[in-house]
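User: Working on a comparison across species. This one is RING-type domain-containing protein from Bugula neritina. Can you predict its structure so I can line it up against the others?
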Amino acid sequence: MASSGPTCAFCMSNLNQMQDPRKLPCDHIFCLDCLKSDFGTDGTSTKCPICGALHEDLDMDELEAVDDSSDKQGSVSKYPPISCSRNCNNNALFFCGECSAKLCEDHKEVSI
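Assistant: Here's the predicted structure for RING-type domain-containing protein from Bugula neritina:
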């Protein structure tokens, strides 16, 4: 199954299914509720589950809102792509919240 743009690493919703999608400063996109439930609401240090970038003192409600009429891939991230945890030479597009694996399209249903 092909991915249509960014996917929330927490709930696995794609952009047009996300509830109030927001972009972290590293350009990765997540549902606002997912970010809040995992990281709190404001003044917290947030480590992106996709690239590991640490973002300090974020106010989740002030993060850039993203809609599906905008560029679905977002801007080019300043961080290099992350490899799939299965060492298959593909870029990771998904994050397993249970085992913290970063997975490509081919391995998104496989948990370590």
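For your comparison, note: The two ends are 20 Å apart (CA to CA).

User: Helpful, thanks.
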